[in-house]
C-alpha cells in the first residue's frame, strides 16, 4: 500500500468515528468550504479505502463485535422468556439467579417498599427491552432482509436481449411502459417516444 499523508491517515481515523466524510475531513484539518469535495475524493482513494478497511478490521478484532455478534444478541433478546426470572409462586427470582441475557438487557427495574401496619412488602417492576424494535432490527439485518421488497419485474427483448422500442407499435410501447412503471405519467411516456 502506498504511504498516506498524515492528513489522509487522520481523515481515515476520523471517518471511523461517525462514518461522516465531510465532518471527518473538517476534523482532519481540511477547509469547511471544500470538506465535502475532499471527503468524496479521499473516500474514492484506493489507499485510503484500504486503510479504513484495516482500521475497521482491527476494531472488530479488538472488540469482537461484528454483524454476527449483533445478530446473535438480537436473537437472544427476542428469545427472552419472563419465566426465566420468575419463581413458581410468581415472585421474581433473586437477580443473581437470572440468566445473563436478562441481567444485561433489562431496560429498567423499580423497587418500591410498601409498608402497612401489619407487614412490609416490596413492589418490583421490570421493564423489558423493546421487543418490537428488536424485531425490526432483526428484520433489517443483512442476511434476514425481512423488510426488503422480494419481487422484481424484468422485461427483456428477443432471446433475453434488450427491448428494441423502435420495432414496437405505439400501443405495444405504451402497454410495456405501463407494465414497467405501474401507470407511469404521460410525460415519461412521451420522453420514451421521443428517444426513439
UniProtKB/TrEMBL annotation:
InterPro entries found in the cross-reference section = SPP1-like_terminase (IPR052404), Terminase_Gp1_N_sf (IPR038713), Terminase_ssu (IPR005335)
Question: What keywords are annotated for this sequence in UniProt?
Answer: Viral genome packaging, Viral release from host cell
> From its record, what is one biological process in GO terms?
chromosome organization
Region Disordered: what ranges?
A: 177-196
By what name is this protein known? Answer: Terminase small subunit
Amino acid at each position: 500500500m502506498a504511504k498516506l499523508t498524515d492528513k489522509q491517515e487522520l481523515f481515515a481515523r476520523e471517518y471511523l468515528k461517525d462514518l461522516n466524510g465531510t465532518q471527518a475531513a473538517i476534523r482532519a484539518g481540511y477547509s469547511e468550504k471544500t470538506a465535502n469535495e475532499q471527503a468524496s475524493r479521499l473516500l474514492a482513494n484506493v489507499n485510503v479505502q484500504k486503510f479504513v478497511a484495516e482500521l475497521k478490521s482491527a476494531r472488530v478484532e479488538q472488540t469482537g463485535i461484528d454483524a454476527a455478534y449483533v445478530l446473535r444478541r438480537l436473537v437472544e433478546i427476542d428469545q427472552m422468556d419472563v419465566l426465566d426470572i420468575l419463581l413458581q409462586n410468581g415472585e421474581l427470582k433473586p437477580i443473581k439467579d437470572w440468566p445473563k441475557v436478562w441481567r444485561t438487557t433489562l431496560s429498567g427495574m423499580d423497587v418500591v417498599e410498601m409498608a402497612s401496619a401489619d407487614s412490609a412488602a416490596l413492589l418490583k417492576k421490570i421493564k423489558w427491552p423493546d421487543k418490537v424494535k428488536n424485531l425490526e432490527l432483526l428484520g433489517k439485518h443483512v442476511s434476514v432482509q425481512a423488510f426488503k421488497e422480494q419481487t422484481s419485474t424484468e422485461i427483456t427483448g428477443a432471446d433475453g436481449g434488450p427491448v428494441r422500442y423502435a420495432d414496437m407499435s405505439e400501443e405495444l410501447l405504451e402497454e410495456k411502459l405501463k407494465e414497467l412503471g405501474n401507470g407511469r405519467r404521460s410525460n415519461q411516456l412521451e420522453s420514451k417516444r421521443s428517444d426513439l
